[in-house]
Structure formats: structure tokens, C-alpha cells
Write a structure and sequence with these properties.
Organism: Facklamia languida CCUG 37842
Largest sheet: none
Membrane topology: Multi-pass membrane protein
CATH class: Mainly Alpha
Keywords: Cell membrane, Membrane, Transmembrane, Transmembrane helix
Shape: globular
Main location: membrane
Subcellular location: Cell membrane
CATH architecture: Up-down Bundle
Helix content: over 70%
Distance between the termini: 62 Å
Order of helices and strands: HHHHHHHHHHHHHHHHHH
CATH topology: Amino acid/polyamine transporter I
CATH superfamily: Amino acid/polyamine transporter I
Number of domains: 1
């Protein structure tokens, strides 16, 4: 039975980790003996040293959500070409993006993306990034409440409505936000991680032996549009985001950077877990394409959310008992990512308005409004939320790649590794917002493509101009000397 595209793609992801991951690490120039924020700024709340394996599990669950499952399911509507974006995007875009932001944060007191943007690109851009980060995390948290609630409702009593399940998830998030990171994520996530890994491996193994031929990437099925007639550019690069390149990850890596003991953990934790997410995406894309034809898959997704596909795939491949366990593996992803999204959002807002989070009163001041707004957003159409989330997500990825580019340029390193994917996604983001109904609704016309090129070149010129004065200002990377960043003072 042919399975070259799936197994070959997974093999390339692993090779990418070994070879290109080492290149990226060498280009960054780690210092294994450098003290980390977890040691220097320990507060037993957010800055807490944890073992590398726990950091890896937390990073994987933080960045994953339903993105590497729902995204590839919808990306499967384009056929096997989705494999190409997952593999190339993951190795040269997503994993590099995650590694760079995680390591730059590690060198800057565990600072979040807005503060890193302020330092390396400029203070005016910081306000824009704060707005995008807040919107993105609100959308992420909301999407990652709706999707597990829909999945759970499929096998709970009828009296337990989706609304009630949504409320219970919010209660779990609310309680968890008050607890130290090592007492919540450090204790619960290893269990969640085990469920995810076992269920993903089970789906992958049964997919190989289920009797149907797996779709192979050939010139004949290299489609330029999906079954609904949507062109591959730029839609595919927003549909499959978390499994290839996702700005949401830039809001999560700094959280893990605050718990790392050594810079040596950067490649397995940041680069490696993105590769792991790519493997998850490959398996779910393959399962969706193998078990359903394009029209059937499209109809299942149109019934509500891709959760319908998750249920069908799990039960078809694993039966009722193990299929239920596989669905649990999918449920833990958005619940864990939703929790981390709201925690990151609270910290980013706190840093922006300079409100220390060392008192319960201050935590409540931010947490309650965040959850109220998110609950209101749950009343919106899921598909509309997903489109807004995708665009805000990839804009944040572009900003993160340009922050990384500026950092590498300041340090005299190879900055093309982040600039090239950054330019590509910048153009895709501009085309998307100018062509889609959520933007100017110009459609994919020559006017849209030309105007997008002009806007992209203008933004690149602005990026170059704003950084010209910084070249002589090599900023300190020392956590002890970098106290000009408005990081919350640890409890003493």
C-alpha cells in the first residue's frame, strides 16, 4: 500500500529538526551556562524553573489547540498539496519562528512579544502589536472554548447543553489562572500530553492499516483551489496555520521561556515541539483525505465545525471505546491552549498598563473583564471567528518574524532565515485582508495583487528605515542588566 507522501512528509519533518534545527541553533549562538529568567527572576508564580521534558509538554499543548487538527481537516479540501505547506512551513517558518521568539524572550527576562517589538522594532509599533496580541488571544481563547465544548457535547447527556459545557470550561480557566504555573500546567499537562500522544499515534497507526489507499501528492492532484473553488493562495496559508506557521505561538513561547533552566533546551522545546505539531497536522490531514472524498468532507465541516470530522475519523479508525479516547486527546488540546491563551493575555495586558499581578485583586481586575468579553464572543458564528482568528494569527506571525530578523541583524547573524518567510507571509496577509469580505472585499483580482505588493513593499521599507538607527545599539541580553523592560517585579 502506498503511503509515500505521509511517511515521507513526517520523515522530512524529523530530518528538518535534526539538520535545520541545529543550523538555526548555531546561528542564534546559545550560551548553555547563561543564567535564565527562571533563576534570576524566580517568583514561584510565572518564573519557576521546571525540567526540560515538562517544558516540552507544556509548549506542545500551549501552541497546539485544535489548530493542528481543525486547520489540516479544512486544508484537506485542497488535497495532498496541504502536505507541502505543512512540511515546508513547519521546518522553515513555524519552527524557526517559535525558536527565535522563545530564545529572544529567554534573553530578555521572559518578555512577551509587545515588549520585544518595542525593543527591537520601536515603541510606536509596540502599541499596534499589543492590540493585535490582545485581539488574537481573545479570539484564540474563545475558539478554544467553543471547539472542545462542541466535541464534548457529542457524547454527553442531552440536558448538558453546549452552553453549560462552555460555562464549565470557563470556570476551569478562571480557577487555574490564580495558581502558579508549576501547580497547574506543570501537574496537569503531562497527563494531557500522554493522552494526546497516545491518541495521535493510535490514529496514525490505524490509518496505515485501515485498508484504503492514502492520497499521494502527484502532478495530477496538485490543485490550485479547493473543492469549493477557493484559490490556494492565500487561503491555504491561513487555513493551515498552527500546523505550519502561527503567530499565536509567539504569545506562548515567552511563557515557557520563564520556566527554562538552560538555553540548551531551546531546540527540543521550541523548535522540536513545532515539528511535533507538524506531525499531528500531517496525520489528521491524511486521515481526512483518506476516509472522505472532498464533497463529503466539505459537507461534514459545513454542518457546524470540523469537530464532526474528528468524531467520524476517531470512531471509524478506532471503534467506539478507543475512538472516544482519541476524541479526548483532541479535547485536551484546545482546553490546554485556551487556558494558556487567557493566562498570556492577562500578563500582556498587565505589562502594558503596568499592573503587577502579585495580588489577587489585580488578577481579578483583568481576568473578569477578559472572560466576560470572551463569553460574549462565544455567541458569534464559529466560522466567522475562525476567519478573523486566522488573519490576526498570521499578522502576529509576520511581526514575530520581523522582530527575529531585527534581532539577528543587530547581532550580525544570518537574518535571511526569518526575513524570507516574513516577507512571504506579509504579502499573503495583505492579499488576504484586501481580498476577503472581512477586509476590503476586492476579490483576488489584478488590482488586489498589485495593491498588496505596493503595500507590502511600503511596510518593508518602513521596517528598514525604523531599524537603521538601531544598528549601532547592540542591546544587552543579560537578564540582570535588562531591567529597563517593564517586567513585573517578583515577590520577595
Amino acid at each position: 500500500m502506498k503511503m509515500i507522501s505521509l511517511l515521507g512528509g513526517i520523515g522530512l519533518l524529523i530530518i528538518g529538526y535534526v539538520i535545520y534545527g541545529r543550523f538555526i541553533e548555531a546561528n542564534f549562538q546559545i550560551e548553555p551556562d547563561r543564567k535564565t529568567p527562571a533563576e534570576v527572576l524566580r517568583d514561584n508564580m510565572d518564573f519557576v524553573p521546571m525540567p526540560r521534558w515538562k517544558n516540552a509538554i507544556i509548549e506542545l499543548l500551549n501552541i497546539a489547540g485544535t489548530g493542528p487538527i481543525f486547520g489540516p481537516i479544512m486544508g484537506a479540501l485542497y488535497g495532498p498539496v496541504a502536505y507541502v505547506w505543512i512540511v515546508i512551513g513547519c521546518i522553515f517558518g513555524g519552527a524557526v519562528h517559535d525558536y527565535m521568539i522563545g530564545m529572544i524572550s529567554l534573553r530578555n527576562n521572559g518578555a512577551h512579544l509587545p515588549e520585544l517589538t518595542s525593543k527591537y522594532i520601536g515603541k510606536p509599533v509596540k502599541h499596534v502589536v499589543n492590540i493585535f496580541a490582545i485581539i488574537l488571544l481573545l479570539l484564540v481563547g474563545t475558539v478554544f472554548v467553543i471547539s472542545p465544548a462542541n466535541l464534548i457535547s457529542n457524547f454527553t447527556p442531552s440536558w448538558l447543553s453546549v452552553g453549560m459545557i462552555t460555562g464549565l470550561i470557563f470556570i476551569y480557566y478562571f480557577v487555574s489562572t490564580f495558581l502558579p504555573i508549576d501547580k497547574t500546567m506543570g501537574k496537569i499537562y503531562p497527563i494531557f500530553g500522554a493522552i494526546l500522544i497516545v491518541s495521535t499515534v493510535a490514529i496514525g497507526i490505524m490509518l496505515l492499516f485501515q485498508g484504503k489507499p492514502l492520497p499521494e501528492l502527484t502532478s495530477a492532484n496538485l490543485y490550485l483551489e479547493n473543492v469549493n473553488g477557493t484559490p490556494i493562495f492565500p487561503a491555504l496559508f491561513f487555513t493551515v496555520s498552527c500546523g505550519a506557521l502561527s503567530g499565536f505561538h509567539a504569545t506562548q513561547s515567552p511563557m515557557v521561556a520563564r520556566t527554562m533552566k538552560s538555553e540548551k533546551g531551546g531546540r527540543p522545546v521550541f523548535y522540536g515541539m513545532m515539528i511535533g505539531e507538524g506531525v499531528i497536522a500531517m496525520i489528521w490531514a491524511a486521515a481526512s483525505m483518506t476516509l472522505f472524498d472532498g464533497q463529503t468532507l466539505s459537507q461534514l465541516i459545513a454542518q457546524g465545525t470540523p469537530s464532526a470530522v474528528v468524531n467520524q475519523v476517531s470512531y471509524m479508525l478506532l471503534g467506539s471505546v478507543f475512538g472516544f479516547l482519541a476524541i479526548l486527546g483532541v479535547i485536551v488540546l484546545p482546553i490546554s491552549s485556551g487556558l494558556s491563551a487567557f493566562r498570556s493575555l492577562r500578563n500582556i495586558v498587565a505589562e502594558y498598563i503596568h499592573l503587577p499581578q502579585n495580588k489577587i485583586r489585580n488578577v481579578l481586575i483583568l481576568t473578569i473583564p477578559i472572560f466576560v468579553i470572551s463569553f460574549i464572543l462565544t455567541l458569534m458564528d464559529f466560522n466567522a471567528l475562525w476567519r478573523y482568528f486566522n488573519w490576526a494569527n498570521q499578522v502576529t506571525a509576520v511581526i514575530s518574524l520581523f522582530v527575529s530578523t531585527r534581532y539577528l541583524r543587530l547581532k550580525g547573524r544570518n537574518f535571511m532565515v526569518t526575513l524570507i518567510p516574513g516577507i512571504f507571509m506579509l504579502y499573503a496577509c495583505v492579499v488576504y485582508i484586501l481580498s476577503e469580505p472581512i477586509g476590503l472585499n476586492l476579490g483576488l483580482t489584478p488590482l488586489c495583487y498589485g495593491l498588496s505588493l505596493a503595500v507590502s513593499l511600503g511596510l518593508l521599507g518602513l521596517l528598514y528605515y525604523t531599524g537603521s538607527h538601531k544598528i549601532q545599539e547592540l542591546p544587552s541580553d543579560s537578564p540582570l542588566l535588562n531591567d529597563h523592560l517593564p517586567i513585573t517585579t517578583p515577590n520577595t
